[in-house]
Amino acid sequence: MIEFTFWDILRNLVFATRWTVLLSIAAFVGGGVVGIAILFLRISKTKWMRRFASGYIALFQGTPLLMQLFLMFFGLPMLGFRIEPWTAAVLGLTFFASAYLAEIWRSGVDALPRGQWDAGASLGLHYVQELRLIILPQAFAITRAPVVGFLVQLIKATALTSIIGFEELLRTSNAINNATFEPFTVYGLVALIFFVLCYPLTQYARSLEARAAAR
To answer: Where would I find the ABC transmembrane type-1 domain in this sequence (predicted)?
Structure first.
């Protein structure tokens, strides 16, 4: 057993937290970009595009995230792609996030009255301009609370990437616990760090919901 002081454990966990934060940001941004593309397909006037987007969303919402990560990390090398744990983690979480974000934003689009589309048409805007200038800004505004709420879930989901070897907070904590045999201290600090990351976002999502309800 290796001797670690409390501050040694805390310092190493805080250092590992940066990878959890970076992974969360990369997956959220990547998921947002892909999610917007899926959203365009989901609300498209073309039937096969809507079906493709619906199938994509159903696939990633209806299968375990851990299985998706396994397919990225173990499956892609069998097709000839060399992939590192960081890349597999980002790709897996990006596709996972994109399905949920696309559906959240689609609900925002559906919540807008038909008159918003008609107003754009009366101004002579074509379909893409209507989306860019009228529909999407409003859809994004009314779905801010669920998007922030999903970000909280995404941060917690990064813990699963430890199983494919990505050195984030949970994998580091497992290594420290194996060396110190102090599970209550190690995992208690991990829980506290996740709480510090997620609680402010949860409160922010609630405040957004309260503002929306007050309008």
So the answer is: 17-205
Please give the full DSSP string across the chain, using - where no structure is assigned. -----HHHHHHHHHHHHHHHHHHHHHHHHHHHHHHHHHHHHHT-SSHHHHHHHHHHHHHHHSS-HHHHHHIIIIIHHHTT----HHHHHHHHHHHHHHHHHHHHHHHHHHHS-HHHHHHHHHTT--HHHHIIIIIHHHHHHHTHHHHHHHHHHHHHHGGGGGGGT--SHHHHHHHHHHHH--HHHHHHHHHHHHHHHHHHHHHHHHHHHHHHHH-
Amino acid identity of residue 90, one-letter, is V
Looking at the chain, the whole-number percentage of residues with pLDDT higher than 70 is: 99
Which domains does the chain possess?
6-214 (1.10.3720.10)
